[in-house]
Specification:
By secondary structure, the protein is an alpha/beta fold. The protein has a single domain, classed as TIM Barrel, CATH 3.20.20. Strand 8, helix 7 and strand 9 form a beta-alpha-beta unit. An 8-stranded parallel β-barrel has the order 1-2-3-6-7-8-9-10, surrounded by 6 helices. The protein has a two-stranded antiparallel ribbon with strand order 4-5. It is globular.
């Protein structure tokens, strides 16, 4: 069984030369790039990703043998909100009213068609070399459609419909592309037909990080992972061991040095590897140049070595 890819998922504001040094020293071989929509929308992210400076830095990572993929909550962009005024039926219903705040109406063929087209355009605009895409639904639990046609479709299965629409779109850009299904918050697939173009990305945001994933405190997340894996042939793990944004309550003013979770990382990686997953990753949001100036890189390298082993 081949060893899984290992790496971190950074915000665009975290992406810097210091991380390349950390990768080379620790042996990580995967990098995810991400944005918080409230801080930078996806259109601006694409401009950033295509800037000369960022393209050059991505190439440095790839030349070092590191796979680089973009991981974006972008349902909001794949169905542009400007269509709400003329076509409210494409958007989700909440409390009997159509709203353009999050996601879409999965029962609308027009919405599905728009998501497919925009997914094609986003894939083309990003131009990543990897064939694995992470176009996620919006980052909001419970923000799904409750219209008459959708109310019997669970949140997780509405998310699955979204992922299948994205897959059709990106395969018009590259027929070998594949899309993830993000099992996160209330998104849990149930009784869906397996699609060989989709892979699972499991993000246990509510897990207890001070205990290994095998502990009783994390039994629910562990059981959910095993349940979701039966619908997919491949799985990415997206954990939170180095997620400074989570530890700081998503407030940069509260940043302090990350807790020492080296033991937890090692135990979790050992367990995840037994499942035959394709990649084991962690968010490392807010761990940027300023963080390194304040706390140095020594501990981050130590944690990344534990992840890479």
């Amino acid at each position: 069984m081949a060893k899984s890819k290992r790496g971190v998922v950074l915000l665009m504001t975290d992406f810097c030369e210091e991380w390349l040094d950390i990768y080379k020293e620790s042996g990580l071989d995967f990098l995810g790039l991400h944005t918080i929509v409230q801080e930078c929308n996806n259109d601006d992210y694409i401009k950033w990703a295509n800037s000369d400076e960022v393209v050059a830095l991505i190439k440095k990572f790839e030349d070092a043998g590191i796979t680089v993929e973009h991981e974006l909550h972008n349902a909001y962009s794949l169905l542009p909100r400007g269509f709400f005024e003329t076509s409210p039926y494409m958007f989700r219903e909440n409390g009997g009213e159509r709203t353009d705040d999050y996601n879409f109406c999965p029962s609308s063929r027009e919405a599905i068609g728009m998501i497919e087209f925009q997914a094609f355009m986003f894939a083309k605009a990003l131009g990543q070399t990897s064939l694995s895409y992470h176009f996620w639904s919006d980052d909001k639990a419970g923000a799904w459609c409750s219209c008459e046609r959708c109310k019997g479709i669970s949140s997780g299965n509405q998310a699955y419909i979204f992922s299948e629409a994205v897959l059709r779109g990106i395969r018009k850009y590259n027929p070998d592309a594949r899309e993830c299904y993000l099992a996160y918050q209330d998104m849990k697939a149930k009784d869906v037909k397996k699609n060989d173009g989709l892979y699972l990305e499991f993000a246990p945001i509510h897990r207890v990080l001070t205990e290994p994933i095998t502990a009783e405190a994390n039994r629910g997340d562990r059981e959910l992972l095993l349940d979701q894996m039966k619908y997919f042939d491949k799985t990415y793990i997206l954990d939170y061991w180095l997620d400074e944004s989570l530890f700081s309550g998503w407030n940069r003013a509260n940043i302090s040095e990350l807790p020492d979770l080296e033991r937890i990382i090692r135990e979790d990686v050992k367990y995840y590897e037994t499942l035959g997953v394709e990649a084991i990753t962690t968010f490392a949001a807010y761990v940027d140049s300023d963080y390194f100036k304040r706390y140095g890189k020594e501990n981050i390298i130590r944690y990344c070595k534990a992840l890479a082993e």
